[in-house]
Write a structure and sequence with these properties.
There is one protein chain. 48% of the residues lie in helices and 11% in strands. By secondary structure, it is mainly alpha-helical. The chain folds into 5 domains: 120 residues, Rossmann fold (3-Layer(aba) Sandwich); 99 residues, Glutamyl-tRNA Synthetase, domain 3; 70 residues, Glutamyl-trna Synthetase, Domain 2 (Glutamyl-tRNA Synthetase, domain 2, Orthogonal Bundle); 54 residues, Helicase, Ruva Protein, domain 3 (Orthogonal Bundle), CATH 1.10.8; 97 residues, Arc Repressor Mutant, subunit A (Orthogonal Bundle), CATH 1.10.10.350. The strands form 5 sheets. The chain has a 3-stranded parallel sheet with strand order 1-2-3. Strands 4-5-8 form a 3-stranded antiparallel sheet. It has a two-stranded antiparallel sheet with strand order 6-7. It is elongated, with a radius of gyration of 32 Å. The protein starts with 9 loop residues before the first strand and ends with a helix. Bound molecules: glutamic acid (GLU). The site of glutamic acid has 8 residues, from helix 6. Glutamic acid binds next to helix 6.
């Protein structure tokens, strides 16, 4: 087998804009990018958009947006295959002249009937090569009838092609299973196989790193390289990404497009770390690696053969780790757009940055994603909070003791000169005893009264940030609610 590094490293990410990129696509982009950066090579972006019927509006933008978001910068491109048709046609013409291909005039109906017949007989779908052996005369007749043919590759009938894969080793494919695959469609566009091989050659790609679902296409590519008398690049097929049930990862497992993860408030640095471990590892225990560490250590030797399991909980955990690693300023900067979008409309914009800083300092440790931040903190920004009496009383309190507790609290807090957490604690902690309540019940009551919820950041710090005026107003409102229901 060739060594990894005979030629300068040039790799590519070659997505088809047939949908928004999902984890598998971007994992391939990341591995190529890491490989290029590790070897000081080039990372090329190529949009494989020759399948006109399956093109999805906006997909190129989300591909580019996803790469930018993750910081996977490319050195060349984006090249668009749709703009390179003349090149593919020229090379297809050369293949025809050299006897490697033939025109096929079979109608869609004939091919469909053949497929159905094969399915019935439980045979794999395969073109029966009828047009491979047309006589001159038959061909001339078909030509004259105005049918636009497709161009097929003459796959050898016998023998096999071995793919030397840097991850999977030598994998042999019998020619009998390969079919006379189409190179040019009747609309004149090349198929994936033709355009992919031509571009990888013309763009001097040294290594093709792509998902293992493309391994079965690779013998066709190797045959094409042979017919064109070109040296194929080295191939490395990346393991499949699986759900926890070991089935191919899909939406059902909670997998989403990369843009969805961005919108759900995952950090790009966490995403990069997480994706890098989907099929690659440094050793059997290291989970957290910075971008620089990934570049330094990435190698194909440690890419696995077997499926990589996508674990959503691990992603959330990792995201939390990266969120806590940010400086407060940085965290605020990332959270602001989410707050802007996610807080109720009644909250006045623009948000007060100083206040946002204070609130964020209480939440940074707790939020798992940026998208959680607005719902975790909305009570800081709203004028009033809504809840019902049951929440206020919890399990331990009756209405009368809650009324007493809040009345006493209001009384004690009115005179507090410095509204800070330690002073509030010094005042409120002894009150629980005076009132004959457990701190759990008493603080629980105050927490619901000032935040409207049972789980919030530490009570005294929360009260400090909310400020005296708002706390007293909310405590009075709680009192009113209780008095109304007693
Ligand atoms: N256009 C193919 C895709 O969408 C590229 C596969 C390859 O890397 O060869 O994934």
């Amino acid at each position: 087998m060739h060594s990894e590094l005979e030629t300068p490293v040039r790799v590519r990410f070659a997505p088809s804009p047939t949908g928004h990129p999902h984890l598998g696509n971007i994992r391939a982009a990341l591995f190529n990018w890491l490989f290029a950066r590790h070897h000081g090579g080039k990372f090329v972006l190529r949009i494989e958009d020759t399948d006109v019927a399956r093109k999805v509006e906006g997909a190129v933008d989300t591909i580019v947006g996803s790469l930018r978001w993750l910081g996977l910068d490319w050195d060349e491109g984006p090249y668009f295959q749709s703009q390179r048709s003349a090149t593919y046609r020229d090379i297809a013409h050369r293949l025809l002249q050299e006897g490697h291909t033939y025109s096929c005039y079979c109608s869609a109906e004939r091919l469909e009937a053949m497929r159905q017949e094969q399915a019935k007989r439980k045979q794999p779908p395969r073109y029966d090569r009828r047009c491979r052996n047309l006589s001159q005369q038959e061909r001339a007749q078909l030509e004259a009838s105005g049918i636009t043919p497709v161009v097929r590759f003459k796959t050898p009938h016998e023998g096999e092609t071995t793919v030397h894969d840097l991850i999977h080793g030598a994998v042999a494919f019998k020619h009998a299973t390969l079919d006379d695959f189409v190179l040019l469609k009747s609309d004149g566009y090349p198929t994936y196989h033709l355009a992919n091989v031509i571009d990888d050659h013309l763009m001097a790609i040294s290594h093709v790193l792509r998902g293992v679902e493309w391994l079965s296409s690779t013998p066709r590519h190797v045959l094409l390289y042979g017919a064109l008398d070109w040296q194929p690049p080295l191939f490395a097929h990346l393991p499949m990404i699986l759900g926890p049930d070991r089935a191919k990862l899909s939406k059902r497992h909670g997998a989403a497009t990369i843009i969805d993860y961005q919108e759900q408030g995952y950090l790009p640095e966490a995403m990069v770390n997480f994706l890098a471990l989907l099929g690659w590892s440094l050793d059997d225990h290291t989970e957290l690696l910075t971008r620089e560490e990934l570049i330094e250590h990435f190698s194909l030797d440690r890419v696995g053969k077997t499926g990589a399991i996508f674990d959503k909980d691990k992603l959330e955990w990792m995201n939390g780790v990266y969120m806590r690693r940010l400086s407060l300023d940085e965290f605020v900067g990332r959270a602001l757009p989410f707050l802007d979008r996610g807080l109720p409309e009644s909250v006045q914009r623009p948000l007060d940055e100083g206040y946002v800083h204070q609130v964020m300092s209480l939440i940074q440790e707790r939020a798992r994603t940026l998208a959680e931040v607005p719902e975790l903190t909305d009570f800081f920004f709203l004028d009033d909070v809504q809840y019902d009496t049951d929440l206020l009383l919890g399990k331990d309190l009756d209405t009368q003791s809650a009324i007493n507790a809040i009345t006493t609290t209001l009384h004690s807090l009115q005179g507090v000169a410095h509204w800070d957490a330690s002073l509030l604690e010094a005042v409120l902690r002894p009150l629980a005893k005076e009132l004959g309540l457990s701190t759990r019940a008493f603080f629980g009551l105050l927490r619901v009264a000032v935040t409207g919820r049972t789980a919030a950041p530490p009570l005294f710090q929360t009260m400090e940030v909310l400020g005296q005026e708002k706390c007293l107003r909310r405590l009075s409102a709680a009192l009113q609610l209780l008095s109304g229901s007693s």
